[in-house]
Each structure stands twice: as structure tokens, then as C-alpha cells.
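> example.struct
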């Protein structure tokens, strides 16, 4: 099976609802993202995959200057009545789900020996407690997942511009996304969709 068919098969067998390759230049970066992390997230300076450490990866991305970005997303409609605790649990389970998807895409690209960078949604959850808190080196450096937001990508504007309305903050849905940065032109025509996002109307 060629790589294009492998990715299509992966998409069809996964919880993903949207997958499209766009030119790397169409990714929308916003420097304000890092400040949102600094002043709005408890993980700032507490995880290796979060700012300010994640900005080293941003430098690497800029140096690599990839041609393409594979965007992928899931969307889940929330029940009309849902408790705060159930919504929190669902949010966490969807973050774990997109990180599992991200790891699967990483493995697929690695098996085909494609130079790439994978960026997932939400803070890395490969370890229960990040070793940064304990002033130790990362325990799983080959498995860690840096989020799109942590390198300054505006997920909402980037996904919406690519054709998948991405509601943030979500009111009636939970949306999660991931991206793979790469150079292989053979995959540039990927454009798959199972359903539209469940954003508020």
C-alpha cells in the first residue's frame, strides 16, 4: 500500500472527522499564543512541551521551512445537558484521543522514512507528571508531543481557513486537532472529511 492509501486508511479507521494538506505558508502563527499560555495555563514552565521550552521547537520549524502541513481534527457534539464534571472528563478523554492519533500519524510517517514534525492538541500526556517539575530530563524524548498552540499556531484560524470551522472556546462541542509538517509532494492532495464540525450556529 502506498503512503497516500495508508493515510487514507488511517483516517477511515480513526475517530478523525477532517484531514487536509495545506501549504505550510498557510499555517497562521500568532506570537500572542505564547502569552495566552503564560497567563492562562497552569502548564507554563511546568512541561517540556509547553512554553517557554516549546519555543525551541518553533525555531527548528522555522529553520526546516517545510512545504506542507497535514491538518487533522475531531469534533464531538456535547449533550444539551452535561455536568461540569462529565464535560471535564470528556475534554480529557478527547485530548488523549487526539494524542493517540498524533502518535499513530508519527509512526506512519516514520515508517515511510519521511522527515516530519508532529504537533498535537493539548499539553503532552505521555507521563503522569512531567519530569520538568522534578528538574529531571524528559523520560520519553522520542514520544513527547508538543501542541500546535505551544509553538504559536492559531488553531482556530488555521483550521477554519482550511475549511473546518473550529470553535474556540467551544460552547456545544469539543474540537481537537493535530498537524504533521513535511515536504513530500505526493501527499499534497489529501482532502478527506467524514462530517463538518459541530460548532455553534
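> example.seq
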Amino acid at each position: 500500500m502506498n503512503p497516500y492509501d495508508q493515510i487514507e486508511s488511517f483516517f477511515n479507521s480513526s475517530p478523525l472527522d477532517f484531514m487536509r494538506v495545506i501549504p505550510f505558508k498557510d499555517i497562521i502563527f500568532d506570537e500572542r499564543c505564547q502569552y495566552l499560555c503564560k497567563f492562562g495555563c497552569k502548564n507554563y514552565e511546568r512541561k517540556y512541551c509547553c512554553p517557554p521550552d516549546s519555543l525551541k521547537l518553533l525555531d527548528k520549524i522555522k529553520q526546516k521551512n517545510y512545504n506542507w502541513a497535514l491538518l487533522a481534527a475531531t469534533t464531538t457534539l456535547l449533550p444539551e445537558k452535561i455536568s461540569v464534571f462529565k464535560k471535564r472528563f470528556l475534554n480529557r478523554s478527547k485530548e488523549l484521543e487526539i494524542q493517540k492519533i498524533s502518535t499513530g500519524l508519527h509512526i506512519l510517517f516514520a515508517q515511510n522514512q519521511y522527515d516530519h514534525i508532529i504537533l498535537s492538541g493539548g499539553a503532552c500526556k505521555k507521563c503522569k507528571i512531567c519530569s520538568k517539575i522534578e528538574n529531571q530530563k524528559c523520560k520519553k524524548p522520542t514520544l513527547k508531543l508538543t501542541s500546535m498552540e505551544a509553538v504559536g499556531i492559531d488553531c482556530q484560524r488555521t483550521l477554519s481557513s482550511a475549511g473546518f470551522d473550529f470553535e474556540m472556546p467551544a460552547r456545544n462541542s469539543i474540537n481537537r486537532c493535530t498537524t504533521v509538517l513535511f515536504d513530500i509532494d505526493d501527499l499534497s492532495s489529501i482532502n478527506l472529511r467524514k462530517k463538518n464540525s459541530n460548532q455553534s450556529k
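> remarks
The radius of gyration is 16 Å.
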